Amino acid sequence: MSNFTHDPTTRSWVAAAQAPGCDFTLQNLPYGVFSRKGAQERPRGGVAIGDQVVDLAQLAASGLLPEHARTACSVAGGETLNAFMGMGLAGWQPLRHALFRLLSADTDPATQAQVRDCLVPLVDAEMKMPAQVRNYTDFYTSLHHALNVGRVIRPEDPLTPNFQWLPIAYHGRASSLVLSGTPFRRPNGQSRPAAGQVPAFGPCRRLDFELEMGFFVGPGTALGEPIPLARARDHIFGVCLLNDWSARDHQFWEMDPLGPFLGKNFCTSISPWIVSMEALEPFRVPFERPEGDPRPLRYLDDTADRAAGSLDVQLEVLLQTRRHRERDLPGDNICATSFRHQYWTVAQMLTQHTVGGCNVQSGDLMGTGTISGPTPGEAGALVELSVGGTREVPLPGTGEVRHFLEDGDCVVFKGWCEKPGAARVGFGECRGEVLPSIDLDHA
Q1: CA angle at 160 for the pair 240 and 265, rounded to the nearest 5°
Q2: Which domains does the chain have, with CATH numbers?
Q3: What is the pLDDT of residues 275-284, one digit of tens each?
Q4: Are strands 207-208 and 246-247 parallel, antiparallel or unpaired?
Q5: Is 145 a catalytic residue?
Q6: Which one of 145, 250, 353, 403 is the catalytic residue?
């Protein structure tokens, strides 16, 4: 699946794309939607390169692109990426390949000058939601997360019997999806302090983050039309970072017998840049199960998915408190793990979603579920790190500790792919700050 756009030796004439630790290298070229800060102009699609954004609407009108790439660029330059996502590989690949050539260092100076006219500095770009998300589904696909949380709420039987047989999910709330950097209020809701006690209503006392990734659906399907596993990759446009904020005390009380409701629907944050599946090709790794675990049923098993269905994306979580900000500190790293530990692949998730006939639409968003690894420091949520609030999570930078999130806390996710023989591919960051709850008695 590798091609010339994965060659790590090819450099860009955008100097910042070669800077150490740069997320937006020439081999990445992630998609987003932006407008210039302070300008009264419509949002349009863009591609990040180094410290710049390629204005796709302007590039489409420049006459620099071959026909197929120009058509795709014009579609991608719209106010959302939905229509571009729906074009599939026939649109995605020509545009990515043309952009790679135009931004490569061996492009002639006259062409470079024309492309430079289509660039906007990242610092001047105000990012928007990349797609109109009509449907949002959140999966539950980390064995380590399932065991860690299960030991908190069901210590005698932590893993549900269906977990090893199908990718579990619930349909989430699309209206409360927000872009990275959007603060949100601590939710109010109902919880029960202990078994047998009268439930109480009030602000969440066990507010948590969940380290996830999200993937966007490309071409949609008709009602009753499942997506076979062998074709699932063709229906996945790209991947972002996702924080599925969770009110644990509300969630655990209300999830008997149905799934998440108020514990999950108050806010979900996503990063603004979507990394294409083509950019992630060098970082595919085999999908492996622990020895002795059941093999997936036939409809969830495919030779190609077994060979390279997982993705080795490095992930970390920083927690920045008010005290960190007062001291101009970035926050403390409280988790570092890899997406390769997930028990199910993104292709298996999409196939499971549609196997019963559920139709999907271009721009639908799927959360992967919390990403946790096998060691304590790889737990992707505070409920795991603090073992249900019974242990302190230290913040060495300020000397503070946390069991769950407090007002003023800011959580930052970062993600990137990196290995010898490949250029770094990064996702930027996904950030959110907790504001105090609304006092309903005086609202």
Answers
A1: 45
A2: 4-128 (2.30.30.230), 136-435 (3.90.850.10)
A3: 999 999 999 9
A4: antiparallel
A5: yes
A6: 145
